[in-house]
Amino acid sequence: MSSSRFAELPRGKGRIFWASDPLELADADESVAKIYSYVIARARGQSHAEIQSDYDLKSSLSPGVLVYPVSLEDSVLYVFVSDNAEDENINIQDKVTGVQIAFRLSAEHAALALIGKKEKAVIAKYGF
Q: Is the same domain home to 84 and 68?
């Protein structure tokens, strides 16, 4: 896949995926999702290694919702961000702790959940 705005370049044993503009500034979430899906598919085919998520989706998410886990020494912080015009049901299960997080994320809002690794529970939350 190559154009004046997006390029895939071989580098050593890997590849560089380059976009002329920040994907996050795109007007259409579907376009960004297509590019990320393409890059993931190419990475899987390149290394033959499965790219693993830190969580399991218990229900599907629209392309306008970002789920970003940050693994810390004794906890896992989840950042949820919605670009959607409508509320979204979130239902995920953290793979490290087994903790399930389910809530309704308000349209165009963010939420945080902090999971304690020892407690195996949500120990702090914001936005839901």
A: yes
Identify whether residues 64 and 110 lie together within a single domain: yes
Looking at the structure, tell me whether residues 43 and 63 fall in a common domain.
Answer: no
pTM: 0.69
| Rg, Å, the chain Cα set | 17
What is d(CA 64, CA 83) in angstroms, rounded to the nearest whole number? Answer: 5
Q: Which domain holds residue 87?
A: 55-126
> Any bridge partners for residue 116, and if so which?
75, 121
86's CB contacts (< 8 A; 6+ apart) are 107
Q: Which amino acid is at 45?
A: G
pLDDT in tens, 68-107: 999 999 999 999 999 999 999 999 999 999 999 999 999 9
Stated as kind and residue range, the H or E segment containing 35 is helix 29-47
Taken as a whole, the chain contains a residue count of 128
